[in-house]
Amino acid sequence: MSSNQTGSEKPNIVFILSDDQGAWAMRCAGTREIYTPNLDRIAAMGMRFDNFFCASPVCSPARASLLTGRIPSAHGIHDWLRSGNLDAERFAAQGRENPYGGYADERKPIRYLEGQTTYTQLLQENGYTCALSGKWHLGDSLQPQCGFSRWYTIGKGGACYYHADMVENGDITVEHGKYVTELITDKALAYLEEIKDGPFYLGVHYTAPHSPWEADQHPKKWIDYYRDCPFESIPDVPDHPDMTTGPMYGTPARRVNLTGYFAAVSAMDEQIGRILDRLEALSLLENTLVIFTADNGMSMGHHGIWGKGNGTFPMNMYDTAVKVPFLAAWQGHIRAGSVCGELVSAYDLFQTVLELAGIEWNGTSLSGGKTVPLPGKSFAGLLTGDSQARGENAVTVFDEYGPVRMIRTKEWKYVHRYPYGKNELYDLVNDPAEENDLYGQPACGEKTLEMKRRMERWFSVYADPQIDGTREGVTGLGQLDRAGQWADSIQVYYSAPEYGNGGSV
């Protein structure tokens, strides 16, 4: 692997990742009720994407796809990781089975991405210093991985905002009374001072705006800011019949949830402003690529759902669950204030980051000692204006969540639930809100078959049959072990008679 740029010419990269943020949850995206001046600032500095999609509408699979460029049926993480984050025996010996957030389902640490190529690993091999501050949730949280030499994270996938279990130097400290969004920013800024001579990659992975959303979980200034907000931009419709959370419609929970969610976004935005200000003060903005995106989308009452893909069972693929914000700014390289309407996916990020960093890549990935093709295509040309041509991938995106798969073009969306349905077909030109399911209508039979065939051909190329999601019993309640033939236990996916909060981690 070689680089076509010298060390001083390589751009620094600040990659900011939020947790459970729908593409709609920014003022610059059209939601006027939400206050996001610093996200709007990044958009004004560079490009905002209107149609950026996650690879899976739940956190751990989506994050793994961002790093590896592979789909869940190729990297093997099919649900949020309920186990494999920590060493259960070690914590039991310390009497720490259930510090704030609980470790009851932890068994042993598992490096779910071990043996797979990540773009951060390749950046490190090409001279970058890689630092992580924030959520990891890809297994063995206590140990740095994937090219990161600086490592500050949380024990599992979520945490109480004022009682977060923070990981540093191989151990966990529960930070009582300190707001986790500020803790993540403080450490990111400390790392920035250490690595500012570059080239560096700084990952800032917030837990916001993930639940909990109660008033005592977020700064009073932001709860007060939204106390009288009418939330007219958010649909107030009856609960979805398959919703795993609830009831919500007609209850006080709607206002509590929206107030906390909006407050979490604005509190995060305030901290992002600190990062931008420090980059500016250090004269780093000119040679720093700043990216902001989210792991997966979020329905906050949209379609009567409060959650992401596992906000319903069977899991859903509504745009509010699969579409995420994506902003990118790099002075002199990305046109300020621009908006891109092309369809782009999280599995395209791998090649894009490498191209922008000047690192040559052959389009394959290492897995289990063998090279495999990657599905994504670099969208660096869309960012820099060098090219608008990306082939078939520019008009089609694919998503999966266990046995639920989606194919989406600008005009149509088809969702297939293996093996028994229910399947869905939407005409996005005439029904952009996905309110009129056309599946099963005689006039749409040929279109349904066409979309299904295209989807199955694509997944047959990029899915690994040994860990294919259509063969996995994913519930939306969490993954306990490696998938398929690599599992070390009988039960790989958590199940329960009642879905409670839908496993919303």
CATH level 4 superfamily = Alkaline Phosphatase, subunit A
- What's the CATH class label? Alpha Beta
Question: Which overall shape is indicated by the principal axes computed on the Cα atoms?
Answer: globular
Largest sheet descriptor: 10 strands, mixed
Q: Approximately how much helix is present in the residues?
A: 10-25%
The number of E-state strands comes to: 21
| Number of continuous helical runs | 12
If classified by CATH, what would the architecture be? 3-Layer(aba) Sandwich
| CATH T-level fold name | Alkaline Phosphatase, subunit A
Spatial strand sequence of the major β-sheet: 7-6-5-4-8-1-9-13-2-14
What value does the average pLDDT take? 92
Unreliable runs, pLDDT <50, ≥5 residues? 1-7, 498-505
Number of structural units classed as domains: 1
β content, as a range? 15-25%
CA-based gyration radius: 21 Å
Could you tell me how far the N terminus lies from the C terminus, measured between alpha carbons in angstroms?
36 Å
Global structural class: alpha/beta
Write up what this structure looks like.
- By secondary structure, this protein is α/β, with parallel strands linked by helices.
- The chain has one domain: Alkaline Phosphatase, subunit A, CATH 3.40.720.
- The protein is 24% helix and 18% strand.
- It has helices at residues 37-45, 59-68, 72-75, 88-93, 119-125, 180-195, 220-225, 253-281, 319-322, 349-356, 380-384, 445-462; strands at residues 12-18, 47-49, 52-53, 129-134, 148-154, 163-168, 171-176, 200-205, 288-294, 299-300, 306-307, 323-324, 326-329, 338-340, 344-345, 364-367, 370-373, 397-401, 404-408, 412-417, 424-427.
- Strands 7-6-5-4-8-1-9-13-2-14 form a 10-stranded mixed sheet, with helices on both faces.
- β18 (397-401) and β19 (404-408) form a beta hairpin.
- The protein starts with 11 loop residues before the first strand and ends in a 43-residue tail after the last helix.
- 54% of the residues are buried.
